[in-house]
Amino acid sequence: MRAGNTTLNEFLTRQIKMNIPIYQRKYNWSLDECKQLFEDILSIGKDETRKSYFIGSIVVKKDSEELLDPLAEVTLIDGQQRITTLTLIYCVLCNYYKNIDERLCHNIYGNYLVNHDLDETNKLHLTKNDNESLKYIINSISTDKEFKLTPDNSINIYNNYEFFRNQINEENVETVIKGLKKLIFISVVLDQEDNPQLIFESLNSTGLELNKNDLIRNYILMGLDTKHQNELYENYWYEIEQEFKNNGWFFDEFIRYYLSFESGRLPKRADVYKEFKNHANSFENIDDLVKDVHKFAGYFACIRFGKEEDPELRDAFDSLAELDFNVTLPFLLSAYDDYQNSLDNPDINLTRDEFIRIVKYVESYCLRRSICDIPTNSMNKTFARLSKEINKQDYYNYFVAAMFEKDTYKRFPTNEEVQEKLLNQNMYSKRKILKHVLIAIENTEGKEFVSTENSSIEHIMPQNLTKDWESELGSNYEEIHGIYLHTLGNLTLTPYNSELGDKSFFDKKTCDNGFCKSKLTLNEGLCELDRWTDKEIIDRTKQLSKKIINIWKYPVKTSRVFDILNHINETGDIEEYTLIDFEELNNRTITRQLFDTLNILILKLDSTVDQVINKQYITYKKNKNFVEIIPLKTGLRLLLDIPLTELTDTRDSCEDVSNKGRWGTGLTRVYLKDEQEVNYIMDLIKQSYEYNL
């Protein structure tokens, strides 16, 4: 690695081709960042006392041994945003002088934009649409055609180029050129043996935080050769980015849900990148990892972005998505994968109709809990772990049993609990859920489809009581108003909310856009009533609550579900497991070899040591558990039932996981991936064994 100060102009005048690798994020500087840079350039250009202005670092990796022989091809690891923006400024300058000073235009074009001696090769090569837009801009300079770039090409390239075109004029153009000459940065040239990933992470550990898509894409692709990078990006990662094109912020959440499958817990947002790197180690090669992420990203788009092809299943997904119950996604992604695999895998029994019913029960579970004001802080764990509680050979019945198994604050609220809660529940404070509920009731009960798109929530008894309403409600009007104003029975839908306002009940019924002329089934019963008091509100609440529990159903405890629950209560587990149930142990892989070796050595510790096989791990115990083994694709994860502080670890390989979610009871985590490490691992296991005697 070599580093040194250089001016922008010195750097760009070299015969150089700067490639932006496909794993880099697109050009994304905003207008605010462009304005700040332009102001800095003008300021330094005007200041005769300043000879230079530092703008950060540029990191490149050599693609050939000789940097300047005859064309230096380099990969731009860091500095894309600044170099691209400065290149756009030079494009504007070139176009500005095109018809004013041909010599100066030619000088800028040949020195800072293209390599004149090498067939006009552009110095900067961006990714995909960004590059096409930049090529168009540069090519337009040497032609007489009017520049006609559109936002469809690349919105940031377009916006920022137009910004600089509008800013640079006769009064400031020379100042801009002076300012550009004073720009300096640290040029870092990496050798072939340098690790670009580590350097990239270090450079981006401060300042504007990269999103998880950028970090993860870089982590996956950066260490691969160019051909391999292109194959994985074009065939898989580009499609992933397209799925999240209009919902970029959802990518981070998707990765959290994706990572929850193995651990049974939802990672903290701040730990996503770190945990993804740990997760990547469980794959034999990077291709399998990318394919796996690609597969689940497609599932996510079906569940959350309305891309499911099956109309009935799509409706179920869309209904859930409307309520933003994203906490359910770890389970739904896992279940969707099982559903997709069920046709080819005889060990998974999950039909289409069963899966649709499961999705609807998931929505019912969440909605009922919201109505009943049950705290939501447990739901992350509930849905992260739910797939682990299901025997896939009888998927639907075990899912229902798992729902019935949840008690106290994790419970599935009963019909009676929901109906009782709705009598006094403030549903107006849950407006998203309320509107969803009212629309669903209308679409279920309505004789014909009536659009509710322009409808809003209407208080039948208004929020502001008039004298007419005080008379309508009677002497206890204040109490009635306080208790029942925001309850379900007093709320409906209408496109004429502002027109109805605080009118009397009679006027709300009979006016031109009143309830009697409403096409909504929700409002039919209102027209038949002569008055609107607490009695009528309570009656309507009861009517609507019956419809709610019919739409969002409570699970049915069939005889099969009853048998499953009895089995779980008797054994503490959903089924009995053997080593055959661990896919990672089914072949003569390194994982199986390591397990067999370790298993023999552990059982030799004492004739009374028991091996207990659970769904996710294998436990070894005497009086107490002393180690749990979790088979991975490329080795074993061990949880030792001993505090890290009590352990003598000669290699400092162990990690304290006492405050982390995990399978098993162990407090200290260590990995075994090589037979040469067996003796070291057994020493740690013996310490845990003796600690628990």
Blueprint of the fold:
Layout: E1 2-7, H1 8-12, E2 16-19, H2 31-46, E3 53-62, E4 72-78, H3 80-96, H4 102-113, E5 114-115, E6 121-122, E7 124-125, H5 128-141, H6 155-167, H7 173-181, E8 183-190, H8 196-203, H9 212-221, H10 226-243, H11 250-263, H12 272-280, H13 286-304, H14 311-322, H15 329-341, H16 352-371, H17 379-385, H18 395-405, H19 415-422, H20 431-445, E9 456-459, H21 467-473, H22 477-484, E10 491-494, H23 497-500, H24 505-510, H25 524-527, H26 534-551, H27 559-571, H28 590-603, E11 610-613, E12 618-621, E13 625-632, E14 635-640, E15 655-656, E16 668-672, H29 678-691
Parallel strand pairs: 2-4, 2-7, 3-8
Antiparallel strand pairs: 1-8, 3-4, 5-6, 9-10, 11-12, 12-13, 13-14, 14-16, 15-16
Helix pairs in contact: 2-6, 2-7, 3-4, 3-5, 3-6, 9-12, 10-13, 11-12, 11-15, 13-15, 14-16, 18-27, 19-26, 20-26, 21-22, 28-29
Describe this structure in words.
The protein is of the alpha+beta class and 693 residues long. It folds into four domains: 2-203, no CATH class; 212-395, no CATH class; 419-551, no CATH class; 579-691, Aspartate Aminotransferase, domain 1. It is 49% helix and 11% strand. The protein has 29 helices and 16 strands. A six-stranded mixed β-sheet has the order 1-8-3-4-2-7. A hairpin with a 4-residue loop joins strand 11 (610-613) and strand 12 (618-621). Helix 19 (415-422) packs antiparallel against helix 26 (534-551). The protein is flat, with a radius of gyration of 33 Å. Residues 205-209 have low confidence and may be disordered.
